[in-house]
Design goal:
single chain, alpha+beta, 60s Ribosomal Protein L30, Chain: A, 2-methylcitrate dehydratase PrpD
């Protein structure tokens, strides 16, 4: 299975890739399957649709607006193109008339408050993020029922697809079958192919993208960065309190104003550069928490790390260039793909080590590459960043991606820069290979208690201040 750069980096809406983008995509898939089923056997009049959320989708679904995402998906919206005003108008109409009317389908009875069920029992066996959608006739007979799993980063698999992947085993399908010139499925293979070809990681990733049919690659990469940078800009100028009830203030604008005022002052401490890195990341994640447009990197909950480090590279590093940003994105996507293939990027599966930890590894690899690191140094940078996020829990207060998520992105970005710098000080030789670190993350996630995996039933989520 080939994971494109544009699979790892997807434009969508906040606050969560697995709890917002994924369910919206799953609902849209259900509509498509409902149309197909109706073409094979005419859909009877009076169909009603129901949704059941399981596992982490139930426990933190309200905070992540999963119910809203399902409704918008059933209304025909897509996360990469949804317009907020249009979506709000469609939601209001749905709540008023309790029905969905779309081309190619009979009228579907559906009211979010009545027909979306949060199941707080044990999660479905196949994955912690389960979603069941069904359409029934007026007499209760099921016309169509589908189970989907939101597996992180906006990726969605049906129950059948997930089972098929697991039957094939943990290792990805050999990418050579797809005609890719560099079909690496592990970091070891990636380094070996780099040595034999004399190419850098980004060059191999570029060749794979082109072979897989990516057109206008540079323009699409530039579009990703433009979306990331626009999100930073919005987050740096918007003040106020984030939605959700925790009364968390947006801090990025004020920190940014302070940094601008202090710029050039002789009294500045040298470590102030860390504040710049952190504020870029926090700006993105405050936008995400508010439901704004972000880029999964590799998830919404970790969306601030990669953009922050790219912005640091562009605005603070000597020799930065637009070509360097493309190299950064391609390198980061190569590492993110390895982590997703061989472990997970889902907080509901492995905790925040799979989200911010993966993002930090991707950012460290990208920065190391654009600062001149050899492939072995890039792999070392990714390993350092990931290693020092191992065991990190996903314990969002009230199921909202605010505490500790926003600051955690800032710290993940700072760690990424430090990891890249350490790797560049060496020659690429190091004790723990990236592949072994990825496998350790996977094993740690399996051993981690469910209450620390995006259910908000443990950790910081249950140790809130009394007032």
């Amino acid at each position: 299975m080939f994971l494109s750069t544009f699979d790892i980096f997807k434009i969508g809406v906040g606050p969560s890739s697995s709890h917002t983008i994924g369910p919206m995509i799953a609902a849209a898939r259900f509509l498509a399957e409902l149309r197909d089923a109706g073409a094979a056997r005419p859909a009877p009049a009076g169909l009603s649709v129901k949704a059941s959320l399981h596992g982490s989708l139930a426990f933190t679904g309200r905070g992540h607006k999963t119910d809203r995402a399902v409704a918008l998906g059933l209304l025909g919206f897509s996360p990469d193109s949804v317009e907020p005003d249009e979506a709000e108008a469609a939601e209001a109409q749905l709540l008023q008339n309790g029905g969905i009317e779309l081309p190619g389908l009979p009228r579907l009875a559906f009211h979010p408050e009545r027909d979306i069920h949060f199941d707080y029992g044990p999660p479905l066996a196949a994955h912690p993020n389960g979603l069941v959608l069904s359409a029934a006739t007026p007499d209760g007979a099921v016309f169509l029922s589908r189970t989907y799993f939101s597996i992180g980063g906006g990726f969605v698999l049906s129950a059948e697809e997930l089972e098929s992947e697991r039957r094939r085993g943990a290792r990805p399908v050999q990418q050579q079958r797809l005609g890719l010139p560099y079909p690496f499925g592990t970091a070891m293979e990636m380094l070996a192919m780099g040595r034999s070809s004399g190419l850098r990681i980004a060059e191999m990733k570029r060749a794979n993208e082109i072979a897989a049919g990516a057109s206008d690659l540079d323009a699409r990469l530039d579009g990703l960065w433009a979306a990331m940078d626009s999100c930073i800009a919005r987050g740096l100028r918007k003040d106020g309190v984030l939605p959700g009830g925790l009364q968390v203030r947006r801090r990025a604008p004020e920190i940014h104003r302070q940094l601008l005022k202090e710029r050039g002052a002789n009294s500045q401490q040298p470590h102030v550069v860390n504040d710049w890195i952190a504020v870029y990341a926090m700006a993105v994640n405050e936008e995400n928490a508010a439901g704004g447009r972000v880029v999964t990197a590799p998830t919404n909950g970790a969306a601030g790390v990669v953009p922050a480090v790219i912005r640091y590279y562009r605005d603070h590093c000597i020799g930065a260039s637009e070509a360097g940003i493309r190299t950064f994105l391609l390198t980061a996507a190569a590492v993110g793909g390895l982590i997703k293939h061989n472990a997970s990027i889902s907080g509901a599966e492995v905790g925040c080590q799979g989200e911010v930890g993966s993002a930090s590894a991707m950012a460290a690899a990208g920065l190391c590459a654009v600062l001149g690191g050899a492939n072995e140094q890039v792999e070392n940078a990714a390993e350092i960043a990931l290693e020092h996020h191992l065991g990190m829990t996903c314990d969002p207060a009230n199921g909202l991606v605010q505490v500790p998520c926003i600051e955690r992105n800032g710290m993940g970005a700072i760690k990424a820069v430090s990891a890249a710098s350490l790797a560049l000080r060496g020659d690429g030789r190091h004790f723990m290979p990236l592949d072994n670190c990825i496998e350790t993350m996977r094993q740690t996630g399996l051993d981690m208690s469910l209450k620390y995996k995006e259910t908000s039933t443990g950790g910081l989520a249950v140790n809130l201040p009394e007032c």
